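Supplementary Text 2. Reproducibility record for the structural model of the 88-residue chain.

All settings were left at their defaults, and a single model was retained for analysis rather than an ensemble. We include the record here because the model underlies the residue-level annotations in Supplementary Table 4.
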Amino acid sequence: MTTDAATATASSTSTTDLLVEIFRDVLRLPDLTAHTDFYEAGGDSLTAFQITGRLQEVLGADVPVSLVFAYPTPLELAEVVDADYGTA
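Retained model, structure tokens:
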């Protein structure tokens, strides 16, 4: 279904944009992109908790901190968040 694919893509883009902004704010890196690696940008367990806390505030989803470590770029994390916590 083309409409479902378009919705999924739009949702993923929105979540990616949201995560880029959260990563930028938490890591204090205004030039961070969707492909910036959390670890290479100086992320640690404290910042991972801050990221998931912000996601919970905005999306109402209890995203495990382990996902930030397993999917360390905003793009990768957005795909998982949309698949596991997004609306179908």
